[in-house]
Design goal:
The chain has helices at about 10-25, 55-65, 80-90, 105-120, 145-155, 160-165, 205-220, 235-245, 255-265, 265-280, 290-300, 310-320, 325-335, 345-370, 375-405, 410-420; strands at about 25, 45-50, 70-75, 95, 125-130, 165-175, 185-190. It is α/β, with parallel strands linked by helices. The protein folds into two domains: about 10-220, 3-Layer(aba) Sandwich (Glycerol-3-phosphate (1)-acyltransferase); about 230-420, no CATH class. The chain starts with 7 loop residues before the first helix and ends with a helix.
Length: about 425
């Protein structure tokens, strides 16, 4: 397993991956990115820990959005194919084995992975781990397993890591909707947590792992969108999407907490009003963006298409040539991928490959018909058209959703549970 801090394959693939995920998602600026900058000559080793909601899209979003090359622990079953293993290892991913993998020497293999990760930290790498030890397509932080704390305790036993310094930081990866084309994706980094005052951490005792896991989870909750569990998750999600429409960015944390408290006080009414909202024609927040559209309208942020009209020629070029590929990918993912948490990964990958190949074929076709000089020119025109077209693509989608929800704005679920209170 490679032990270096960086790999050239990662460097080659990242720009393509960044383009692909930003083609599929509306990716906002990273909050807290300054926590990864180092003023000293020797940067500390860093471990980023995150909730795990969206399959392989979680590490992909982090890897293409953050400056240092990241080294993520990844479920071992995706390494089974020889070609996949070669590629993933050069993307700095490290296999972690679970009981479900039914490997006889599971503990030894994980020990070797941890040892390799510790060696990378000694060299100044930035590693990433998912302490929940599994993914779930819900916007909330679940209970942490203690394997991450054990890994940190092992790192603190390494003299070279103690000398360099180790920072353990929360990283929140948030997706407005997991399978939606042109929905929002956000990242938020929090400050490093304190590793001081945890008795027995250096010896890796059980109570130390529990205390460290609790500190990590509390730190992640401070920068995360954390919705209610159980039956109230979906009405709370709808309110969250409404608040995102109001602000155009992260939902207001205080208002989201107030809504949670109100729903917990009267769960039957909250569920009844939410179900009635769906019955009236508002689409489910897992499947569409109606509640976000309602939030924009109620806050006076209605989409104005005329502001994007100058982008119309580029939008037409993009739509006619390759703009239909993302929608076909979304359609295919809904029918072929059973787990919602993996639909984004499937859709982004399929879109990246098909759009790139389509641009290549169109450029080569122009080269045959016109001349070799036209190949880079056509490719560049297609790429620029796509970049210029995306804001209009977003505006058209938002405008259509707003048109669909205008006659629902007086619904009790929106007025009683979602709208900001004076």
């Amino acid at each position: 397993m490679p032990l270096g801090v960086s790999h050239f394959v990662y460097s080659l693939v990242r720009p393509w991956g960044r383009w692909g995920i930003r083609l599929w998602h509306r990716v906002e600026q990273v909050k807290g990115a300054h926590y990864l900058t180092s003023g000293g000559a020797v940067p500390p080793a860093r471990l980023l820990f995150s909730g795990h909601q969206n399959g392989l899209a979680d590490p992909i979003l982090a890897c293409v959005s953050l400056e240092p090359q990241l080294h993520f622990f990844t479920r071992a079953d995706v390494f089974r194919h020889r070609v996949a293993r070669w590629f993933l290892l050069r993307l700095n991913m490290m296999p972690i084995f679970r009981a479900i993998d039914r490997i006889k020497d599971l503990a030894e293999r994980n020990r070797q992975t941890f040892a390799a990760a510790h060696s990378r930290l000694e060299n100044g790498a930035t590693c990433g781990i998912f302490p929940e030890a599994g993914h779930l397509d819900e916007r909330r932080i679940r209970r942490f397993r203690h394997g991450s704390a054990r890994f940190i305790a092992g790192a603190m036993q390494r003299p070279a890591i103690r000398e360099r310094g180790l920072e353990v930081l929360p990283l929140h990866l948030d997706f407005e909707r997991y399978s939606g084309y042109r929905t929002g994706a956000r990242l938020c980094l929090g400050p490093p947590i304190s590793l001081d005052g945890i008795a027995g951490l250096a010896e890796d005792v059980g109570t130390a792992r529990v205390e460290l896991s609790d500190r990590m989870r509390d730190a992640l909750l401070d920068c995360a969108v954390h919705l209610l569990d159980g039956p109230l998750y979906e009405p709370h999600l709808a309110a969250c999407r409404f608040l995102e429409g109001c602000s155009g960015t992260w939902p207001d944390a205080q208002r989201l907490a107030e809504i949670a408290d109100a729903m917990l006080e009267n769960p039957d009414r909250a569920l009844s009003d939410f179900e009635d909202a769906l019955a009236s024609g508002l689409r489910h927040p897992r499947l569409a963006d109606d509640f976000a559209a309602a939030g924009r309208l109620c806050s006076g942020r209605a989409t104005r298409l005329e502001r994007a009209l100058w982008r119309l020629p580029a939008w037409v070029v993009f739509t006619v040539t390759t703009g239909w590929w993302p929608r076909l990918a979304e359609f295919a993912a809904e029918r072929r991928v059973k787990q919602v948490a993996f639909r984004t990964t499937f859709s982004i990958t399929l879109t990246m490959v098909t759009v790139t190949l389509s641009w290549a074929m169109l450029s080569l076709g122009a080269g045959v018909a016109i001349g070799p000089w036209s190949v880079p020119v056509v490719f560049l025109i297609l790429r620029i058209s796509q970049e210029v077209a995306m804001p209009m693509e977003d505006a058209i989608m938002d405008w259509r959703n707003e048109r669909n929800v205008r006659h629902h704005l007086a619904h009790p679920f929106l007025t009683d549970w979602c709208e900001p209170r004076p």
